[in-house]
Amino acid sequence: MTLSTSLRPRRGRHSGAARTDRLIQWGTWLLVVVLIFGPIVPVVYAGFVDRPLYESGGVLTLDNFGALGEDPAFWSALRNTALFALMAAVPGVLIGAGLAVLVARTDLPMQRFFGVVLVAPLLFPGLGVTLGWVTMYSPSGFVSTWVAEHFGSTPWNLYSLPGMAIVTLEKSVPLVYLMVRARLSSLDTSIESAALTAGARPLRVLWTITLPMLRPALLTAAILIVMIAFETLGLPLILGGPVDIDTLSTYLYRTWTTDPARQGTVSAAASGLLLLVTILLWLRTRVEGDASRYATAAGKATATRRLHLGPLRWPLAILISSYVVVAIVLPVVGLVMTSVTYIFTPAVSPWDVLTSRHFETVFTNDSLFRSITNSLLIGVVGSVLATTGLATAALVAHRSRFRLRSTLTPILFYPRALPGIVVGVGIFWSFVLLTPLEPLRTTVWGIMLAFIVRNTAIGYAAIQSSLLAISTELDAAARTSGATWFKTCRTIVVPLLRPALAGSLILMFVSILNDYDPAVFLVTTGNEVLGVTMLKQWAAGFAGPVAALGIIQIAITAFAVTIGRLAWGVKLHA
Amino acid sequence: MPEINVSALGLDYAAKTAIDDISFTAREGEFLTLLGPSGCGKTTTLMSIAGLVQPTRGSITCGADVLFDSQRSIDRPPERRNCGVVFQSYAIWPHMSVADNVAYPLRLRKVGKAEIAKRVQEALAMVELAALAERYPHQLSGGQQQRVALARAITYGPGVLLLDEPLSNLDAKLREQARIWLKEFQTSVGLTTIFVTHDQDEALALSDRVIVMNDGHIEQVGTPEEIYQRPASPFVASFLGSANLLAGTVLGTAGGLTQVRLQDSGQTVSVGADSLAGDVLVMIRPEDVELFSDTNAADHATLQGTLASRTFVGSSYRYIIDCGGQKLSVASRERWEPGPVRLRFAPERARLFPHASATAVPTLTEELSHA
Prior knowledge:
Chain A has 574 residues and is mainly alpha-helical. In chain A, 71% of the residues lie in helices and 0% in strands.
């Protein structure tokens, strides 16, 4: 009988192992706290002292806030940002929600096609897309010029607050679309069938039953867009810059770069921005919590009953198709054409001015080429480091008895409220002030750190949702079999988590590749990254090479996503 | 095999006491069952022994080993408790073959390759799965998965076997077979076993002793026969099988019998002698009540009632008899028609409880009328 010899776990080795477990758990927690709150400290602190951080003997004061209050430029930036946020949020929510309902709940033609195309912009690099809009719809853009030639004038102006809001739709519509679709899939279609049988016509059902049920999702989406409007930097810099329209983030950026004497004031403004976005995040989390409480019982997946649009079917399909062409296809076409022509205008046939010069420039100019290799380098290294760290953090948060485990998830989600520009400045100051870290300041690794910090929530969400779906009894069984916490994680949980880890790897790679706001203060010669190079080249008037870089960025992103899908079946935004 | 000693174990959550200072001992080689409704604390107790839940108070020992002691701040991590645990979901690791699942605890203990192969083979043979060693969990049926979990839990010779509702995921037919198999298995390995279930039939069929739990505390400890035949509380009486609970008042005790006057109808019944006085509940199981026709049994069946409803349940009929306001459930193989009837039960089959103890227990007839 096998049981006659009992194999006891060895005592000495195991108590050592338990110490290792605790070390890993504390180490992970400290690392997360330092990385995420570290960069905020100098920014907030600088707002409350009377002299720049690098001068010693600072005295705590509120003067900076007073000075800020007396700066009319600050108030106008704040007003602009609020208007911009409003103009972006309202149409963004209406269009995104409308599309989601039509695609998910009605017999609209070409649903599968729309389902894919509508979310595609989420994978486009934000800066590239903005430039694509400029090439098409700015006063000298292709479409604008064509319209002006045929109708005398263009009824829109991209270099304005409404213009900025319209370009924001590119990213906000797919976000709203996804959030509303997720909410719709948790609502049983029988609530709509019930209204139909009560005698309501399909459109009335959508208006009186479906839309009200979506209210929490719409509110969350609106808050999300407002948050984006408050923190985005590249878009207002490109579209507002030429006409001197400042938003909060460009106000911070300009003052920081041009007026070193006013660092205290700007830091005060940055703290204010941080507080505001934090409140928005808190609001959003609250609304989301409410939303889940009001979810209808998610019963068995019954076949979705689709509402009949009747004669409106094709007109609506055509309307949506034109949206896809105008807002998604044309900007990309504009970017592509700008990258392969000397000049992209309706006055000249593009075929006559074709050139590969811009790509040649990109590959021969040291600084431009370096920005590609640097971005790839930090993308690969950063995604691996971030995924390792985030996976460990998720295991500590959800699979350990570590005392502070419940604080990890909110901390890792908090960077959603960190404006990129604030992270960038914070990391810059941390490197300046902490002498041992100073050498990092001018390397790509500092930028990588900033990008990782800003995007933790994306990778963490991917890992966490899968981790929560793995039964805790699987690790309990390993623990009672004699495995330590770390051994259990390594041999049981991580292997089961592999698809989610691949997903996090791809998402983090794409995010790091396409991010740029936090790097604007960290870039010098040698550590250029794609986004910042594009921003600077654009400001210097080199549209062609910038477009070429944008195309390369899109190509790398598409390549990474395809690899993920083929190799690991990673589904992004599923 | 060591014995498991749980002493004054308590666990408080923020708003609720999950385990209310319970004590019990699982003797060497014993099959001990924790039985109770969901939320009674039975699984929490089991997981406290395994080290997966951290109790607030008390102590747990396994032989001479202290696994947990709140006063001495001892809380051995689960990996050093040497318990074999079978979880409700079986928790077979889906990315490992059957053999790898069973070998995992042995690899952790740095057992040699040949020894691992031998032990895995033996353990799988014991659960009659030797042929399926190379299969993966998704290729196994529920019953086979359950046996893999058992094999995995015993290969390394644990001090105690902890089973958390291992039969509840099997369908009814399979469950009955698995029950017999599990009993034989436990007897042959001779491991001290603590078994958690909410199923009274399983508890009665498998256990050497049963601990009935309710709301975090122990209602009764005893052999299956004891807890079924002499329940210590109305809760135990109704949780194990069906029980009628009739309100009444003790009139007095004489000649080895206690006379109780039933509420409402005022009729008197005799039960086995008891020291209780005042307001009581008379517990009698439906199968212990005999029915007689109203006309010809007045001398030996003194209790009168009206047959209110009849339900055919296959092996017998279930009747609801109205005894002047109090409803009584009766099981009988004979078919009776609605109308006046007489009832009788042997005094030693009935039990008395103080009336106050009945508050939380739904009456049997209420349950029946809901069904």
